[in-house]
Amino acid sequence: MILLENLTKRFGPKILFENVSMQFDPGKRYGLTGANGAGKSTLLKMLAGEEDSDTGSISIPGSLRLGVLRQNHFEYESERLLDAVMMGNKALWSAVAEKEKLLAGEVTDAIGVRLGELEGTIAEENGYAAESDAAELLVGLGLLTETHERKMSTLPSGYKLRVLLAQVLFSRPDVLLLDEPTNHLDLDSIRWLEAFLIGFRGTLVVVSHDRHFLNSVATHVADVDFRTITIYTGNYAEFVGAKYENQQRGEATAQRSEEHTSE
Fold first, then answer.
1. Residue 212 confidence (pLDDT)
2. 232 forms bridges with which residues in the sheet?
3. Contacts of 23 (CB under 8 A, 6+ apart)
4. Least CB-packed of 85, 150, 172, 256 within 10 Å?
5. Do residues 174 and 86 make contact, with C-beta atoms less than 8 angstroms apart?
6. What is the C-alpha to C-alpha distance for residues 64 and 58, in angstroms, rounded to an integer?
């Protein structure tokens, strides 16, 4: 569970959030909505630990593995596509790299013990299926098998972002934070991503301008408005209907109060 307590965040003179207390629950998929400039991307950065709050706190249990879609598509220029994806699982990638380094030298008894520990980590992280799993993600996101051995530097920027999306999906996260993941995807890749996320069992928080995507994926909507965050149950279309009804009730209540005051 992700817990926000009395959270306040300013952007220059503008207050984005003020004393917000709420939670994102396991097993739920939240579409993060709000007007441009309301603070959606800022909130994602705060959840990822990349931005601090002015006051209040965000609590994420340390045992949870966080997956964040980043836009650092020039960071992996010298890596082949498969390796760039597998680097998303830091525990696995570190264990494989250390194992290869140790095997290149003399294997003493102490090193043999360490190799056993590394084998345990690799098995625990499903490392022996890692390359095929990475390939499956790349194909799903529209990168054909014959491209998987290529270097990241050979890809156009839009396709590099697809690899980074595959990387974060490969990381086996408990919490998945995605900012506009359908950018640069074709329709087939978007539908594949929808199916993947519907099967995701952790906590998903996603920003997207693609309403069809949010209708397919979201089980809840977290609406950033009036310096607070309101949770609605249902997909984007259900949220729009519920918010409209709330506004109508609020306006009717305000009108009745005004009429009563004027009597």
1. 94
2. 221
3. 1, 2, 3, 4
4. 256
5. no
6. 14
